[in-house]
Write a sequence for this structure.
């Protein structure tokens, strides 16, 4: 899943309005933000296997540190403890925790059975990626719901707050369509480096949030 994670991050603004959108994105996408580094270090593994699903050519062979349920829960705990330490905003920390775990649950819907509960366990996945139309529907529906909630509970304080937000939504949609309809990545290294570029989306979230306020 890709834009769905950002949709859930946007939606969470309604639950904890004082958490910046950047922090919400960081939480919702944390395990995918860490994954490229573990790939580059050779600790987790992915294989390019065109046709393995209708949507993605990636075969997630081994990623128990980022994408086991236990791993996700421990990352959730780490980020929420750090968050409450830095901000003293307990409600925000709770939302951060559940956002990190939400990533695994959303991935469970779309992935092949490649998600372990804990390192070495049986693997699970409901396989929505076998259908392009269903994947697009679910991804876009979650993003639309999140964008609508975020717009309802914040208002722009200047023009940047409007255009920064809408340009992000368009950018996310373009990336999602490119992921599905574009050519497979040329190499695992390319996957990892493009994956690192996602940190820009977290910064984009902080930037937008500085130009909007709770309404
Ligand atoms: Zn993921």
């Amino acid at each position: 899943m890709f834009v769905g994670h950002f949709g859930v991050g946007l939606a969470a603004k309604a639950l904890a309005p004082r958490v910046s959108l950047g922090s919400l994105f960081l939480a919702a996408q944390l395990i995918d933000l860490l994954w490229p580094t573990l790939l580059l270090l050779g600790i987790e593994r992915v294989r390019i296997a065109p046709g393995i699903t209708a949507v993605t050519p990636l075969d997630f062979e081994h990623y128990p540190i980022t994408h086991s349920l236990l791993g996700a829960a421990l990352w959730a705990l780490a980020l929420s403890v750090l968050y409450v330490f830095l901000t003293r905003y307990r409600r925000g920390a709770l939302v951060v925790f559940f956002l990190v775990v939400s990533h695994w649950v959303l991935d469970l819907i779309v992935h092949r059975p490649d998600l372990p509960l804990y390192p070495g366990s049986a693997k699970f996945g409901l396989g929505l990626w076998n259908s392009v139309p269903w994947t697009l529907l679910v991804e876009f529906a979650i993003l639309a719901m999140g964008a609508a909630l975020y717009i309802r509970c914040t208002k722009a304080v200047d023009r940047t707050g409007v255009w920064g937000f809408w340009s992000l939504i368009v950018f996310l949609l373009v990336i999602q369509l490119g992921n599905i309809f574009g050519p497979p990545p040329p190499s695992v290294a390319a996957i990892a480096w493009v994956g690192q570029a996602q940190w820009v989306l977290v910064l984009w979230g902080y930037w937008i949030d500085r130009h909007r306020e709770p309404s």
